[in-house]
Amino acid sequence: MPRIETDICVIGAGSGGLSVAAGAVQMGARVVLIEAGEMGGDCLNAGCVPSKALIAAAKAAEAQRRGFRGVAPAVPEVDFGAVKDHVRAVIEAIAPVDSQERFEGLGCTVIRAFARFSGPREVQAGETTIRARRFVIATGSRPFVPPIQGVDTVPYLTNETIFDLRERPQHLIVIGGGPIGVEMAQAHRRLGCAVTVVEGASVLGREDPELARVVTDALQAEGIVLVEGQPVVRLAKTDGTVEVTLGDGRQVRGSHLLLAVGRKVALEGMNLEAAGVAHTGKGVTVDARLRSSNRRIFAVGDAAGGLQFTHVAGWHAGIVIRQAILGLPARADPRAVPRATYTDPELAQVGLTEAEARALHGEALTVVRASLAHNDRAQAEGKTAGFAKVMIVKGRPVGAGIVGPQAGELIGLWALALSARLKMSAIAGMIAPYPTLGEVSKRAAGAYFAPRLFESAAVKRLVRLVQRWVP
């Protein structure tokens, strides 16, 4: 039976695992990379990449449908199968970067098998035993299938299967009103499907309600039916349709069903007990350094049981590399991690929401807003629905949210501000090119200082003295 001795053994070739492996091997470490499924993980094959490719096609269809002032609208001719060809082409264009061939070319030993721990320093992958100085668990997560009565009797889609669907659904029912659910709902609506979203609580309930309302209003304006505050109690298949029974007795019938109610960390069968790795249903139990109860074993990304974003997995990878490869101290502080929902308009947040900031800081909190209605670029493009909102304590932002076009791009400035602990004066003093949507952030910073400058009696007295005495 083959045996390999190595410095780093990475289990999982998704975004986090690939980042660790690439960084470690290029710095001179011996690396074994183990992956039982597809290289690139969920993000490349069933998550971020295909969803954004689908959203791009849907956006193009909606642009035709809406037209523009002086440009006549037109009914788009949507070839649903060809749209899926575009999705597949985007995946294939990116795949070489994540491929086995590339990582073997970098110097990694890549093993395509399921990994199972056989001890604190060993895993078994196929016929090979790997003994390593450090392990990184980067196994990601999979769609959670809720235990709804009848779920095993109906055909359903998840993010792992919906992108393979080549026939356009007549009526797509989405169970789950989080980011995945609403992104897929809007994309399919724009591609010609009737869509109903069923959410047991509130749609986009994790987000700031003031920001989320702009998105939900847009979804409803496009014809998406939102059912909130109603749990699904039963599923059934009737005459070729899926029947969803709600808690209040109402029934919703559709041609297709998408389950988008969360994700489950993929740790099954890894025999973590043999390695002395503590874990729960939420993931591996890690400290701020991302180390497990076995100090030789780290966990990153979804496997670490925290925020489930591709960019978090990449960030975690850097923290592990600094420790395991360079021997430097590093800790994960999630306070400056941004998140974005890629609907139209987009919604992005970083740090504390208003409710969270108010609960933590009370009267010390100041909240400022800047509307896109006052942004010249937004006016020129006819996209004025939305605003920026910043939560400030003692002159420093503690959270920010943006809803509107390109919010996912615009939130980066505020992620930097929180990470670097910048003051609002740094944002106010920034020179933004004109006309850009990014000016909305500078305007929000200006809104913080405006009362202090324009409504202060002391400032007015100073100005009068300057004007009288300074030559």
From TrEMBL:
Start and end residues of each FAD/NAD(P)-binding domain: 7-317
Keyword Ribosomal protein among UniProt keywords: no
Alphabetized SUPFAM superfamilies for the sequence: FAD/NAD(P)-binding domain, FAD/NAD-linked reductases, dimerisation (C-terminal) domain
Pfam families attached to this UniProt entry: Pyr_redox_2, Pyr_redox_dim
Cofactor: FAD
Gene3D superfamilies assigned to the protein according to its UniProt record, in alphabetical order: 3.30.390.30, FAD/NAD(P)-binding domain
Pyridine nucleotide-disulphide oxidoreductase dimerisation domain residues: 337-444
Top-rank taxon, per record: Bacteria
UniProt KW keywords: Disulfide bond, FAD, Flavoprotein, NADP, Oxidoreductase, Redox-active center
Family per similarity comment: Belongs to the class-I pyridine nucleotide-disulfide oxidoreductase family.
Protein name: FAD-dependent oxidoreductase
Source organism of this protein record: Rhodobacter calidifons
Lineage of origin: Bacteria, Pseudomonadati, Pseudomonadota, Alphaproteobacteria, Rhodobacterales
